[in-house]
Structures are given as structure tokens and as C-alpha cells.
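Researcher: Re-running this chain for the archive, since the previous output was lost when a drive failed. Same request as before.
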Amino acid sequence: MEHKAGFVNIIGNPNVGKSTLMNAFVGERLSIITSKAQTTRHRILGIVNGEDFQVVLSDTPGIIKPAYEMQKSMMDFVKSAFEDADVLIYMVEIGEKELKDEAFFNKIIHSTIPVLLLLNKIDKSDQQQLEEQIALWKEKVPNAEIYPISALENFNVKEVFARILELLPVSPPYYPKDALTDKPERFFVNETIREQILKNYDKEIPYAVEIETEEFLEDEKIIRIRSVIMVERDTQKGIIIGHKGAALKKVGMQSREELEKFFGKQIHIELYVKVNKDWRSNSYQLRRFGYNQK
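Model: Regenerated C-alpha cells:
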């Protein structure tokens, strides 16, 4: 039996629904989903295996103009998505008219690999607007196949996946056939805690936070976790902890609930908060947290 395998890389502006789409393809919540921009910071692989195929999906950070070192590193993850893709998914949403970086856009329209342009969130539009948007993007990206979808409502997602399978090259699998992702357990602990912080805190706080899981001990029935929430300033530490520790306790409780769903086991989690001054602009700290690829 002929076996197909390849890398399908998803790019687009922040908040277009890339993470929702990848999770829909994989059938698991591998990528964080919140209404806030810059939710995805790393390049996250989700692997879908069939008897005669392996699709390696890559969810990248939303394309932005970097303001500091961490954001530059995030855009490096996006650049790498062009280098190894067998199929490129360019995701836009209803009402969107351009990519935030012209250089990335030029790479898309001059791509020599298949490009699928997914027009997401069509459940928020009417027929006339949809037709206008399809015409607009056909003109802007003539080399792309355009699919209107709703990742959240799962509309047209199966059809897009079927087209991906047709476009994949013949190849042996890149990863073990039982693999779901390339990331270790601690990565998903960190991302789950960060997701709760994004949901519970406003303004700059979520963007100044990084998580480091220092302990992950798994028994047959329980996983014991100790994680540190890194912030840049003492004032941020106070906000994260909250009055009498109430805010931190809430994050811990919500994280535990989500991790129990993810791992299918009882979770015991301890959270601490530490100040790591200006870590987002420190090359050493960024490498430590897995950002700098160089």
C-alpha cells in the first residue's frame, strides 16, 4: 500500500483561528485557544495518522511586527514554516484584507508548493459578503485554492483535510504512528497554565508571563506537578498572586481541571510566582524557554 506523509504548515494573522483548526484536524486540544492575540508563541506540531498517511500539522504564532526579542523569535518560527512545508495553509477571516507582514505575503503568492487559503469564520457572514471576500482573495492570491470554512463549527474542515491528503507526497512516516505531537508533557502543562492566565488577567500581564514546570512526577493514578510562573516585575507578581493568594489559587484550580481532562488522570499541582526581570528581551532567558532557534 502506498504511504503518504508530509508537513502542512498553518500561517496567518493573530486571532484567525489557526489553533482551532489544528485542534479540529487532530481531534485533541494541543494549541491554546483564547480571544486574545499572540496566544500561540511556539511552533506546535499535531500529528494525524491513518493506515496509509501521516499528516504533520504545524500551528505557528500569528504574524505580527515584532516589538521585542521574544516576538522576533516568534516570527522565526513562522519563517521556518515556509522552509519545510509540503502544503501551506494561509488562514484569513471574514473581513480581513491583508497580511501584517508584506515579506511573508510575497512568499505566499510566489510559493512553489500548494497553497490552501482558508477563509474562516464564515458563520459570521452573509452570502454576499462571502462572495465578495472569495473574489478579493482570488485576486490577491491567484496561486491558492480557496475554501470557506468555520473551524469552530467544523464546517468544511473534513473537505479541506481530504484535499490535504490528495496533495501529500508519497513518503514513509516522519514520526512513530502512535505519536500525537512532538512536544513533551511539560510543554502542555506550561501552555495550560498560560491559557488560564490569559483568561483571568488583563492588559500586559499575560504577555509578561512564562511558565516553567520544575517537577512532573507520574504515578499510575496521579500526576504531581510543580510549576513556576515567571513575571518581569514585582508589581506583576502581586497581581498574579492576588489578594490573599485568591487569584493564583483560581489559576491553579482551573489548570488542574484542564490537565485532568488532557492527561485522563488525577492532578496535584503547586504553583509559585517568581520575578525574572525583563526575560522577554534577554537572549539567554529566551533560549532557556525554547524561543531562540539560532
